[in-house]
């Protein structure tokens, strides 16, 4: 079997098959992306490596002039490393797109540049231990404190603990929390809140338990 012909058949395009091969060569030549010793690394090293890969990916993507090659590069890289793919999805899709779709103009102007530069590394705190993604059961509350002009987020029970939150355990600096808003003693429905999890040294902030 001719590998080139088989690739062209699978991807329905001889041109795109060549773009995939070119993208694979680019990744193999980039020491920030190609990690042949991945399985010899500790979990801490693997985590740092994946974040460095995401930073490099974000740095490279705006430089592509060839849109087919750009698409191929993303596809090959995400297939090459599923762990990096998962982290990128959480940060770029769950975290970023929620801000983009749910935020105000002012919030988008503040947060999106930080997210795109990875000055902020985000995760997505929707699911709870007792309810998974059944939103009507969410217990986490966000009460507006008028005197202090801030929101107090609170987990009232074990079943209300945010659970299955990818990247929250060791990596994310911030999260988006879905909680029941209460103002002036009245329920206002579910709303998203941007919450900082860690300081610049990676330590969990006071009141945050991960």
Task: Describe this protein's structure.
- The protein has 210 residues and is of the alpha/beta class.
- Helix 1 packs across helix 2, helix 2 crosses helix 4 and helix 3 crosses helix 5.
- The N and C termini lie far apart (52 Å).
- The longest helix is centred in the middle third of the chain and has 21 residues.
- The chain is built from 6 helices and 5 strands.
- Strand 4 and strand 5 form a beta hairpin.
- Strands 1, 2, 3, 4 and 5 form a 5-stranded mixed β-sheet that branches.
In whole angstroms, the N-to-C terminal distance is: 52 Å
By DSSP (H or I, 4+ residues per run), the number of helices equals 6
Largest sheet: 5 strands, mixed
Structural class based on helices, strands and sheet pairing = alpha/beta
Written as H for each helix and E for each strand, in order along the chain, the element string is HHHHHHEEEEE
Average pLDDT taken over every residue: 92
Considering DSSP H and I runs of 4 or more, what fraction of the residues is helical?
40-55%
Portion of residues in beta strands equals 15-25%
Low-confidence stretches: none
Count of beta strands: 5
From the alpha carbons, calculate the radius of gyration and give it in angstroms.
Answer: 21 Å
- The gross shape turns out to be elongated
